């Protein structure tokens, strides 16, 4: 549930009485200014915390990574700034940790006269507890042109002291509060970690996606062991931990004291550590700040900085039947590898790397769930790479479909809200459907968080049809979607559930639920039909069943494929009739309308195609006149870019398409961690769709799957841009990790270090799976650094031909990058691809149903669509044997459940 409720997104922060700002930072006493070849730097004179870090005019437009323009609203005690330090320490042998935090009680520091390469320095004792076990000196240093922040930690006691936690808070300008779209996009940035120990780093990317990103790297032995959210007051004017200000995090060098306390019930990302200092001993920890030329060149900047680099193919979410590849680059050779839990992964060196700069390993996954691969280099540098192993991808989505149409199936004819039969929201923590929730949409079958389950179940039939599941989805569409969720005039309700006891006197609303919040809608509010986002879910359900009815006709009993197609068009028309809110915004999963339009043309339904195209053109014409046409219900969002890109590319608006693509690159990172790799920025949706409701960086919420669509689509148009492939495929893989061993799919994973678990609600997982289903495939590339690789499959051989086993979840798509060939199956499942570049031929082996998935419905014929998406002048592959075409698809008969076809240029 999103933007009509923007004012309420910021509750409780902005609607409370704001706490007065009492300035203790020292802004009134001025600043210390320094200039380097890379940055223009300002420190607050009294606190020596970072006030401004601008790229120098010679590097870019003077972008400031620090929120200097609102620092006057962040000058109180307990507001964290870059240069602060937190710690927990104890005398060795004591069970009690004592804390230090330089933000708690600020006092003016006595500066230390700088010498050598030191720009500014001060002892932090005045702003630490008087009984602090540690003496800390902070130095800002310019070392070989790099700005560094160093902390000299000294044991000031007569006994050994153990440091159980040590953290450096990071403050960057992710504050959108009070800004319009232009200001937010021009001034703000987002930051994400690679929690990789000595190889860890933080990347800070300006929202435009075109400016140089900042990299925060460790100095010496200063590992990024943990990543902790920093609590601040939520009652200030900027709305800390709200939809317009996610909040700040700290780089943790040691985490044992938290692992023993707040995190004791979770498995942290890295093994917790502490450090022991003998009396008088000093250890220095530090960070350095490096500018990368562009987002795509972050790894090049890491190489140049002498930092360890890891590149995983297809990423770090690894189905157990696929072979992953991991390439490592670091001046010091690899000494050893190990894994936790033991046996979760195995590895073997390979010879795929095309130069000595990289060393390659083939990775196999054995234990479902999270695992941590630890790489130790000869110089004792430690790097951790975080994997998530799933079931074989085809089986994982088979489990999903089964779970949704059994455990999540709601069948109660007496239900007063007309929700039966349906696939309804599910609570994994109590293993029951969610029949009641104060947020009316969650049990009300609409909005992303209420439609999510039936949306996933519908699109799963397009991806991998199952006869029993299709039968239930036909029941749902005929009895509940059409006539209850969707009115007979084509309008779509915001929910079918409501809180109004006088209207449903026989319904037992749980007394344990508080019904006094705005989201406990009455009937009139639930039955409103003014939210365009809700319509797209309905369109997707109809389109999915059209695809089933068209290509697997024996599976459908209730309606023809023409009926489903007409229903989808009618819903588009209703959504864009001028009376539905947000229809002019980019909408979640609306790429499905682009697929719908293509199908209308393929079927020769020109009138309907003209209607849909005309409505979409009107929307895109408006976007073409805007620099930031990514509006939504929220102040800033990562939902509109997908739809804007889809129609900008369709109507050849390259400027708008590129703006959308760059925007996505700014908030969808590539890092060696399954949770953050390809994970588009989302942080408020748990408030509206989760069981655990809080503002936090979400892992693989629907932003991952949906924002991957433009990235992977653009890769098919520019198939040498391997960065797009890596990030896009990672985003498409994200929704696989949400599916547990029983088939339940959670809305997202909680990233806070004290939680690290999947949310209990299915929530709004559905749009995430739509992104996965629309674009997942096997992508075959000849990479300049890593040779022949298959994202979504295994390369079986490379000579004399390139032979690839397709192992992605759908087995419906293959992209052969060197020739730009995009091969898709409307029916059937790819099992093998054999590429002969010398002969310019491709041999396809196709099965009637997904191999290894017993209940996948067999196709009567394979239906193959061939495209060239790269505009490379090579033309289209064509079958060498005589095959007929139907609606743009080559019809290939099966013999004993298998077929093969050879295509040539």
Outline of this structure?
The protein is of the alpha+beta class and 905 residues long. 23% of the residues lie in helices and 27% in strands.
User: What's the Cα radius of gyration?
Assistant: 28 Å
User: Biggest sheet, open or closed, and with what strands and sense?
Assistant: 8 strands, antiparallel
Assess the beta-strand content as a share of residues. 25-35%
Number of strands: 45
Helical run tally: 18
The poorly predicted ranges are 1-20
Looking across the biggest beta sheet, what order are the strands in? 6-7-8-9-17-13-12-11
Q: Which descriptor suits the 3D outline?
A: globular
Mean pLDDT: 96
Q: Structural class per helix/strand content?
A: alpha+beta
Share of helical residues? 10-25%
Distance between the termini: 49 Å
How would you describe this protein?
The protein has 905 residues and is of the alpha+beta class. The strands form ten sheets. The chain has an eight-stranded antiparallel β-sheet. The radius of gyration is 28 Å and the shape is globular. 58% of the residues are buried. Residues 1-20 have low confidence and may be disordered.
Structural key phrases:
18 helices, globular, 905 residues, eight-stranded antiparallel beta sheet, 45 strands, 23% helix, alpha+beta, seven-stranded mixed beta sheet
Secondary-structure topology with pairs:
Layout: H1 6-9, E1 31-35, E2 39-44, E3 50-55, E4 86-91, E5 98-101, E6 111-112, E7 118-123, E8 134-143, E9 146-155, E10 161-170, H2 181-187, E11 189-194, E12 201-206, E13 214-219, E14 226-230, E15 248-254, H3 256-259, E16 275-277, E17 282-291, H4 298-304, E18 309-313, E19 317-319, E20 324-329, E21 334-340, E22 345-350, E23 359-365, E24 369-377, E25 382-390, H5 393-404, E26 409-410, E27 422-423, E28 426-427, E29 432-433, H6 447-463, H7 467-481, H8 523-526, H9 532-551, H10 561-575, H11 591-602, H12 606-624, H13 640-650, H14 654-667, H15 685-689, E30 698-699, H16 702-717, H17 722-737, E31 749-750, E32 757-758, H18 765-775, E33 778-783, E34 787-791, E35 793-797, E36 802-806, E37 813-816, E38 821-827, E39 829-836, E40 841-847, E41 861-868, E42 878-879, E43 885-886, E44 889-893, E45 898-904
Parallel strand pairs: 19-25, 33-37
Antiparallel strand pairs: 1-2, 2-3, 4-5, 4-10, 6-7, 7-8, 8-9, 9-17, 10-15, 10-16, 11-12, 12-13, 13-17, 14-15, 18-20, 20-23, 21-24, 22-23, 24-25, 26-27, 28-29, 30-31, 31-32, 33-34, 35-36, 36-39, 37-38, 38-41, 39-40, 40-45, 41-44, 42-45, 43-44
Helix pairs in contact: 5-6, 6-9, 6-18, 7-9, 9-10, 10-12, 11-12, 13-14, 13-16, 14-16, 16-17, 16-18, 17-18
